[in-house]
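Re: [ENG-882] Designed sequences occasionally contain unexpected residues at chain ends

Forwarding the minimal case from QA. Structure tokens:
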């Protein structure tokens, strides 16, 4: 069939979305509620359609058509939407969405690009890191480099993030977890009832929407303030398309995202995406989207909501068999069958250790557990801060949330943070408070990075980024949420502390085992692989009010990659508000050296009998053998 110079063919109905073969573009969309569907073609950027083409309906509620269009360097110069029963909507399988090229600006339209789908990672061989070896770093693509002082040329973009790879390598990061990067409508409104709803026409899918709904939405918009959905969790997301406004060149957004992933892999850094699907997304679409990011771009894994997309569904998929997943709960049957693929992502460690470090009662058993036990076949992601909460600096600067800038009377966000302002709310010039805060932040990093789990650092925490007490900065596309890179210089001492600590973790396999540490002497060397102590060796205070613990790790059980034996370690924790002297255990032929110390006043570097821990402090000793073990 000829129509205005286009050759139209009967479609096949598979696959869904846009495909290209035999010099023809094939369009297929599932709209089982509709009686009819049309393909609406536009010359790129133009208002009026170039052609409206009726689509054939299959028995499965899939509408399909083939169209021959001229192609130059993979592109046609055309965009498209679908129109079902008079309602226009963008293809939910679109791999490039046009119209939202400037973050925060109202889109003139939302259409899919007619382009030849391209495989970017088909020939790429990259082996992701084992969970126990990962040092994760969570960031927002735009916010990581949007600030004027970020030091990159292409600020707030995938290319800008790639420019920061040398920094991440120097820090010791080998895996990044990105907040949502799929195309979404960042413009939000607050309706009169106070509920946030995502706006922007047309919607991503046909679900009984009508023109009256659209008119009401736009009429309401004239009388309500517009907010920005900065984080990207949205019911309007297009799960197959990278966000165009995060690209330095939105017309080449797929290419730029692919180049970013390749650059990370070349540097030995894994790339993980948060893919938090909404409840209305069909399971088939969710699986297809994950396959798309893995097979087309080489993405290494995803954080998903297992209440929406069951773990079993992704575990059994052949295209995702090497892919890692962060989920909240993992059944024993799954972890045993697929070891190393699933990581628990929950707040347990975060909230327990926040409470322990600020001196709450009854938390020493939790500390023991996290410092000794790794669930077999599964690694737990251990973090002290996440994007939806306080930063590390704010965790010890604020007792309560300060979210007034969000425009919700400061009532949004969680009320309970297990935080502590160390004596004064917010910024202070009091030296005593400043010293205590720095000590608490070191304690947090030491506890997380030496625990038996996969540590995750929130972007900027390594140099004490602040959100000024905002613990729910979902709508703050500004200096509140952006990483302030001037702090890397201002707080260089803390940054160097974190770098050294990450390097220490990587150097010593004792802290990156893929198994549970055993509390028995199973090689008959005289003392267990790991043992618990109090202020006196081999004596643990089990009372609820106790806030002290020492752990001794025996390196005789572990060999490093060069086949030499691991060092011994003695970790001492005092979260009491009084100082305590810890007597050291006698270990034959070993000299203890201070490896890390959060105390304000550091004692000798080679303690022999006792170590005095100031209130709320941690000391890590490294046991060096006088005679190397063979």
């Amino acid at each position: 069939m000829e129509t205005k110079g286009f050759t139209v063919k009967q479609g096949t109905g598979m696959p869904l979305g846009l495909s290209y073969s035999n010099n023809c573009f094939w369009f297929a969309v599932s709209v089982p509620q509709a009686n009819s569907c049309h393909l609406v073609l536009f010359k790129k950027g133009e208002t009026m359609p170039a052609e409206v083409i009726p689509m054939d309906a299959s028995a499965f509620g899939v509408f399909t058509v083939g169209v021959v269009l001229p192609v130059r360097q993979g592109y046609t110069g055309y965009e498209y939407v679908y129109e079902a029963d008079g309602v226009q909507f963008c293809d939910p399988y679109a791999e490039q969405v046009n119209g939202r090229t400037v973050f925060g600006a109202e889109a003139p339209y939302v259409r899919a690009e007619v382009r030849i789908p391209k495989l970017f990672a088909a020939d790429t061989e990259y082996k992701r890191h084992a969970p126990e070896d990962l040092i994760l770093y969570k960031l927002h693509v735009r916010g990581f480099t949007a600030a004027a002082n970020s030091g990159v040329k292409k600020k707030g973009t995938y290319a800008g993030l790639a420019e920061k790879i040398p920094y991440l390598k120097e820090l010791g990061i080998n895996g990044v977890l990105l907040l949502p990067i799929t195309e979404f409508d960042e413009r939000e409104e607050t309706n009169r009832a106070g509920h946030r709803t995502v706006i922007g026409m047309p919607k991503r899918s046909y679900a009984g929407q009508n023109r009256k709904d659209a008119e009401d939405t736009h009429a309401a918009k004239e009388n309500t303030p517009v907010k920005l959905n900065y984080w990207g969790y949205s019911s309007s997301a297009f799960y197959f398309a990278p966000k165009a406004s995060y690209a330095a060149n939105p017309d080449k957004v797929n290419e730029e995202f692919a180049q970013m992933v390749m650059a990370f892999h070349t540097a030995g850094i894994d790339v993980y995406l948060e893919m938090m699907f909404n409840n209305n997304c069909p399971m088939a679409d969710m699986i297809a989207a994950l396959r798309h990011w893995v097979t087309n771009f080489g993405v290494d894994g995803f954080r998903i909501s297992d209440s929406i997309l069951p773990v079993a569904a992704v575990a059994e998929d052949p295209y995702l068999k090497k892919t890692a997943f962060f989920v909240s709960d993992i059944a024993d049957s799954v972890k045993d069958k697929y070891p190393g693929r699933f990581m628990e992502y929950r707040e347990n460690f975060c909230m327990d250790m926040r409470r322990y470090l600020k001196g709450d009662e009854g938390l020493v058993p939790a500390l023991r557990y996290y410092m000794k036990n790794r669930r077999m076949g599964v690694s737990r992601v251990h973090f002290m801060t996440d994007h939806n909460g306080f930063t590390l600096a704010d965790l010890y600067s604020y007792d309560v949330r300060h979210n007034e800038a969000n425009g919700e009377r400061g009532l949004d966000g969680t009320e309970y943070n297990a935080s502590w302002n160390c004596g004064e709310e917010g910024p202070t010039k009091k030296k005593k408070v400043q010293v205590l805060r720095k000590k608490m932040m070191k304690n947090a990093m030491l506890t997380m990075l030496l625990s038996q789990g996969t540590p995750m650092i929130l972007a900027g925490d390594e140099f004490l980024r602040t959100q000024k007490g905002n613990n729910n900065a979902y709508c703050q596309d500004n200096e509140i949420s952006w990483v302030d890179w001037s702090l890397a210089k201002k707080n260089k001492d803390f940054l160097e502390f974190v770098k050294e600590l990450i390097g220490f973790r990587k150097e010593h396999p004792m802290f990156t085992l893929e198994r549970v540490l055993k509390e028995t002497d199973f090689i008959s060397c005289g003392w267990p692989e790991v043992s618990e102590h109090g202020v006196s060796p081999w004596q643990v205070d089990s009372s609820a009010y106790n806030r002290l613990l020492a752990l001794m790790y025996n390196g005789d059980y572990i060999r490093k990659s060069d086949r030499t034996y691991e060092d011994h370690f003695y970790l001492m924790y005092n979260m009491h508000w009084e100082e305590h002297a810890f007597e050291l255990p006698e270990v034959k032929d070993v000299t203890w050296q201070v490896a890390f110390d959060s105390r304000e006043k550091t004692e000798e570097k080679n303690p022999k009998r006792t170590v005095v821990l100031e209130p709320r402090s941690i000391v890590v000793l490294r046991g060096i053998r006088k005679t190397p073990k063979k």
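QA comment: On inspection the terminal residues look reasonable. The first strand starts at residue 2 and ends at 3. Proposing we downgrade this to a documentation issue.
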